[in-house]
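Long-time lurker, first post. I've been practising inverse folding by hand and with some scripts of my own, and I keep getting stuck on stretches where the structure tokens seem ambiguous. Below is the full token string for one chain I'm working on. Before anyone asks, I'm not after the true native sequence, just a reasonable design that respects the backbone. If someone could post their per-position residues I'd love to compare against what I wrote down in my notebook.
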């Protein structure tokens, strides 16, 4: 998993208004909600790219995690933070247990 494309990806989105000419997006919080049973092999790549890892092991026998709830609660906490974030960018990769690929 390569993170070299992260600036190109985030720069492809328009900045929220108001913005100054030449202003660039800064990623202030890099957090990865990771199912260690499925994505452990990618852990070090996320760490090297400066992400905080939040382990979210499966909560059910079907492999479901409560990542969505934790993400929403963390986003709510960040909205109340004194920094005053302008936007959230959420990237998602879901691995189906019934398929070998990602979608």
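-- Answer (accepted) --
I ran through it position by position. Result:
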């Amino acid at each position: 998993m390569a993170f070299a494309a992260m600036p190109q990806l985030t720069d492809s989105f328009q900045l929220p208004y108001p913005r100054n000419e030449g202003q660039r997006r800064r990623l202030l919080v890099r957090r990865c909600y990771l199912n260690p049973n499925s994505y452990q092999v990618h852990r070090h790549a996320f760490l090297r790219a400066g992400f905080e890892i939040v382990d979210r092991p499966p909560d059910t026998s079907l492999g479901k995690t409560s990542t969505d709830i934790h993400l929403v609660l963390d986003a709510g906490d960040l909205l109340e933070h004194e920094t005053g974030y302008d936007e959230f960018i959420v990237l998602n990769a879901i691995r189906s247990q019934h398929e070998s690929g990602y979608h």
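A couple of notes from the structure itself: Confidence is low (pLDDT under 50) at residues 98-103. Helices lie at 6-11, 36-39, 43-48, 67-79. Happy to go over any region you disagree with.
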